[in-house]
Specification:
By secondary structure, this protein is of the alpha/beta class. It has 13 helices and 12 strands. The strands form 3 sheets. Strands 2-8-7-6-5-3-4 form a 7-stranded mixed β-sheet, with helices on both faces. A 3-stranded antiparallel β-sheet has the order 9-10-12. Strands 1-11 form a two-stranded parallel sheet. Helix 4 links the parallel strand 3 and strand 4. The two termini are 30 Å apart. The structure holds 4'-deoxy-4'-aminopyridoxal-5'-phosphate.
């Protein structure tokens, strides 16, 4: 049995998602815009999925718009907010450890005249709420902060940050990339004080290529995709009924067991930490006061990430080097936290899902020990 411990990169679609996807391709194959009953049935499937995502975020289904994933959602929300609200206010405050789909969008906006203030993480990988809020002022059109960092699992004080921003500067739009928190930590849109939220399907046991954005009522987002006016004009293009149905089914199936899955991840995380603490060549990079237990990042002294990753792979253990998105490039998140270049170069990210087990931990630790013995000799 492979030990798949790269669930922050992507998860295996669950049975419910696969069945829903197949049903939408074999039986319910209509176009939701068609006026006949085949179309209506497809539209109902999309409506049903929208309700499931809304239930998970505790919001009205009308606030949910489907996209091709979190990258599209982040792009649309940030660029769309800048287009509608950025005529006079030109300042954006963002954490310095966002996913590239946020960070690169910020760079794009800088080129068109926006000022982007990036709040660096503290040594433990989390963002200081006071520092973030202090950077916001009446000229700030958007504040964007992720919920859980995808490389370290550090939980950001988004609730505190956004609550205070909304009290001090109600006109400032708040956006949260909640991809790594969704279906792991309980998220209530009202408590979060977020105007805009991004989530992705393939991190929660749905297929790749589907995501959703929450847009609070009253917030106007200029669309990126223009055409037939689907999704209330926010995202033109025929809805991917199979992927959307699968997303809805995956979320609906897991919603009742979020707390149980969290406890399982917590137990596995603790167990792995204890075992790693006994290995003097390993240093843990996930040390925030508030950590999401689904992600654990550590460095293996003197062994480059990719070398260790491939050794682990040869033992049927699958992890990530820092972050899968950076494809082996130096982790800017660890560097921003003050982790040395050497330690950042040897970072391994382990990430759990609801199906991870103690057996996976045993396989990982055995392979890590063997890997260190065999690779350290050759260095
Ligand atoms: N934001 C975060 C925090 C992520 O971890 C990811 C996926 N690595 C994304 C956005 C992009 O998601 P998607 O693959 O759905 O575009």
């Amino acid at each position: 049995m492979p030990a798949y411990l790269d669930n922050a990169a992507t998860t295996k679609p669950c049975d419910e998602a696969v069945s829903a996807c197949v049903a939408a391709m074999t039986e319910n194959y209509g176009n939701p815009s068609s006026l006949h009953k085949v179309g209506l049935s497809a539209e109902l499937a999309v409506t049903d999925a929208r309700k499931a995502i809304a239930a998970a975020l505790v919001c009205q289904p009308e606030c949910i718009t489907f996209t091709s994933g979190a990258t599209e959602a982040n792009n649309t929300l940030i660029l769309g907010a800048a287009e509608n609200y950025g005529r006079r206010r030109k300042k954006i405050v963002v954490s310095a450890i966002e996913h590239p789909s946020v960070e690169e969008t910020m760079k794009h906006l800088e080129k068109s005249g926006f000022t982007v203030i990036r709040i660096k993480p503290q040594k433990d990988g989390s963002i200081d709420a006071d520092e973030f809020v202090d950077a916001v002022d009446h000229d700030t059109l958007l504040a964007s902060c992720m919920y859980v960092n995808n490389e370290t699992g550090a939980i950001m004080p988004v609730k505190r940050i956004f609550n205070r921003i909304k009290k001090l500067y109600p006109e400032c739009i708040t956006h949260c990339d909640a991809v790594q928190a969704f279906m792991k930590l309980p998220i209530k849109t009202a408590d979060l004080s977020a105007d805009l939220i991004t989530v992705s399907g393939h991190k929660v046991h749905a297929p790749k290529g589907v995501g959703a954005m929450y847009i609070r009522k009253g917030i106007r987002i200029a669309p990126r995709m223009i055409g037939g006016g689907q999704e209330k004009g926010l995202r033109s293009g025929t809805e991917s009924v199979p992927l959307i149905s699968a997303f809805g089914a995956a979320v609906r199936a897991q919603l009742p067991s979020i707390a149980t899955a969290y406890s399982n991840a917590e137990e596995l995380n603790l167990r792995l930490r204890k075992k790693l603490a006994a290995l003097d060549y390993i240093s843990i990079n996930s040390n925030a006061e508030e950590q999401c237990p689904y992600i654990l990042n550590f460095s293996v002294n003197g062994i480059r990430s990719e070398i260790m990753l491939h050794f682990l792979e040869s033992k049927n253990v699958f992890v990530s080097s820092g972050s899968a998105c950076s494809k082996g490039a130096h982790s800017s998140v660890l560097t921003a936290m003050g982790v040395s270049d050497k330690a950042a170069d040897s970072a391994i990210r382990v990430s759990f899902s609801k199906t991870s087990s103690g057996g996976d931990i045993e396989a990982l630790v055995t392979a890590l020990r063997e890997g260190y013995m065999s690779l350290a000799k050759r260095q």
